[in-house]
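User: Teach me something about this protein's shape.
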Amino acid sequence: ELGVERRFVPESCPRAVRPGDFVRYHYLGAFPDGTRFDSSYDRGSTFNVFVGKGQLIAGMDKALVGMCVNERRFVRIPPKLAYGSEGVPGVIPPDAVLHFDVLLIDLWNSEDEVQVQTYFKPEKCPRTVQVSDFVRYHYNGTFLDGTLFDSSHNRMRTYDTYVGIGWLIPGMDQGLLGMCVGEKRIITIPPFLAYGEEGDGKEIPGQASLVFDVVLLDLHNPKDGIVIENQLVPEACERRSQTGDFLRYHYNGTLLDGTLFDSSYSRNHTYDTYVGRGYVIAGMDEGLLGVCTGERRRIIIPPHLGYGEEGRGNIPGSAVLVFDIHVVDFHNPSDSVGITVNYKPSNCSVLSKKGDYLKYHYNASLLDGTLLDSTHSLGKTYNIVLGSGQVVLGMDMGLQDMCVGERRTVVIPPHLGYGEDGVEGEVPGSAVLVFDIELLELVSGLPEGYMFVWNGEVSPNLFEEIDQNHDGEVLLEEFSEYIKAQVDSGKGKLAPGFDFEKIVKNMFTNQDRDGNGKVTAEEFKLKDQEAKEEHDEL
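Assistant: First, the predicted structure itself:
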């Protein structure tokens, strides 16, 4: 009788041999005394055959039925189910009992189809693989018995290909359809949908079933444009970015599977660039148009609008990019100072002008509301002479024509503020600044070009009055004492907001025309006298 001993049975046996199946197995053939007469191991290849179709001796046809892949059986076949009374000349004598030690390697049927088993699927699956899509995936390729023949993980590089247009074996073309990014599935492919009777000529033998453990990392179509997902749009959006604007924004850049490749947050510095001028990849150029300050959006960029087939740095070739951006501010190089009057007193007849001495409070912030500085927290006003270069040009402009008690918001673009460099540790480069201002005090300045004016008639003997010791020369000390006395008595007025000593020294130097530290009567001239002489000379 036929004897079958199951020496090893795998825990998992999803499928057993049935008549009509095609099998690949290894075997050792021996006589009862242990003498070996044949071995597939010696030939280095499995024995490949259909079961139940008369291609095997009757005993082996029966013994293989019910076997699982990786099962090992010891089979004892009597002569009547083997080679009978004739045997095989020179190999198997007549009426020989045969022993076979069989290990099943592979099993399939000509009616089989591609089998797909998904063992992980993301909760969100906005898109699945379709014919003509381009995908990037990792895989482990094994035979049915678990033997590894290839792995993209070992090469540390994804397999990148189009789907459904013949770039892959037919079974893989089918098995990838419908996958989501992040999905993991096992794709089992019969040989007639893989490498067929010949194999691949290298690692894969003929008639081999293939098992691919696949994780999909990326997916796009050459016809794709960018995708914009608005995550937060401020209710107040007075202005949206246009071509030619300069933006400052933060971003996290990831691949479709969530792998982070770059982040401006990690550098603690915004990414600053012009939009629509080709300074960034085409997809980002498009995705940054129409944003508001404070807006958060996700921009999904296909590789042909990103870094293409070659990739860049730690961005692989043909990768879809996902940017989560937060717009901090933007401006245009043609922008001027923006002024919004929030409150103006009913009595507003005296307006600030160049040369006036101003005292005001302010809160300074960025466009996104980040507070930079505040005079309120210092408990004192900020004091300047308007138009004298003591503040940035945009503030000089924003404080013009303001009356005491007025409150206004002044928006200053960087080219009228602190420029590309900003102020280290305080104001970022290329930042738009917002000042909320309240003017508390205004001291009218002097006419342009004057540091001192008389409030009344000028003495005809002015030089003699200054020259207190009547030696015909005026020293700086004499000059300083005289000017101070005139100011204290209300007869004269100095330009407000400047240091007294510096003004007086400047006035004295202007009079000391030969630079010898003394002013003579011949050198001494009033402002209007200087102007008349210059006019006559012209």
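Now, about its shape. The longest helix spans residues 476-489. Confidence is low (pLDDT under 50) at residues 534-538. If you'd like, I can walk through any region in more detail.
User: That's plenty for now, thanks!
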